[in-house]
Amino acid sequence: xxxxxxxxxxxxxxxxxxxxxxxxxxxxxxxxxxxxxxxxxxxxxxxxxxxxxxxxxxxxxxxxxxxxxxxxxxxxxxxxxxxxxxxxxxxxxxxxxxxxxxxxxxxxxxxxxxxxxxxxxxxxxxxxxxxxxxxxxxxxxxxxxxxxxxxxxxxxxxxxxxxxxxxxxxxxxxxxxxxxxxxxxxxxxxxxxxxxxxxxxxxxxxxxxxxxxxxxxxxxxxxxxxxxxxxxxxxxxxxxxxxxxxxxxxxxxxxxxxxxxxxxxxxxxxxxx
Length: 273
Ligand code: NAD
Hints:
The structure is a single chain. The protein is an alpha/beta fold. The chain has one domain (1-187, 223-230): TIM Barrel, CATH 3.20.20. 40% of the residues lie in helices and 14% in strands. The chain has eleven helices and ten strands. The strands form two sheets. Strands 3-4-5-6-7-8-9-10 form an eight-stranded parallel β-sheet. Helix 1 links the parallel strand 3 and strand 4. Helix 1 (25-38) runs parallel beside helix 2 and helix 8 packs across helix 9 (211-221). The longest helix is centred in the N-terminal third of the chain and has 14 residues, at 25-38. It is globular. The site of nicotinamide-adenine-dinucleotide has 25 residues, from helix 10. The active site is at 49 (proton donor).
């Protein structure tokens, strides 16, 4: 399993399994159990996904030592607005049945609180309930504001990122400041034709890879962690193999040129949840 080292020395596997929109507890449980059985050691959930209990149980039942698994969960916007950060992580840990998470992320940059919430995140880190803290969906201007006040630099910024939304500027900004970028929706979230795009399918065919492996490999090569979601064993296995190869500079350039700043999810500057 390929790993990268976060800015506080914590190691994180460069691919994890995401479990957004896996609300059914049995499916969430089986997905995480299967992912761990085929070799994943990194799971990405959130309070708002409604599956922390199932995720935690699957990890506990897997027989894999807790210290070998990297688990992320996230602070939901309502808890950010109310300022109840400590209560929120406590509640997440209770649902997960764990005494720490590896990474706790501020899920969205809520306009009024995206800077002030960070002090409370730092307190969570200092309490040991999260081995690393970070943010999600922060644009460079949100990060710049946060960094002016921060004592601890966010370890991660998890953002929507796939070839039609390459996020080049945000990724460069993060890497230059030792904030590790992480891609959500790396396969186009099941809403995009990216996996049948001729550039992607041609590179896949030429290299004996699948389109999913090509788009995941493109992000990894740029220093971006990926957390593709699948509930199927074959796809989980297929996606995990994106760490086995390197793309050529020419292929990287061709894939990056597909960018059209096309968001499939909410705009971090204009969301209403
Ligand atoms: P994704 O890009 O991972 O796409 C998932 C979909 O791609 C699947 O539902 C399936 O339809 C398809 N798929 C998976 N493997 C495939 C394969 N090998 N070949 C063909 N199709 C395949 O989208 P996502 O689930 O939105 O994002 C991944 C994870 O990121 C989530 O599960 C969640 O953990 C996280 N996420 C975070 C945020 C955030 O705001 N921080 C938002 C959305 C998602």
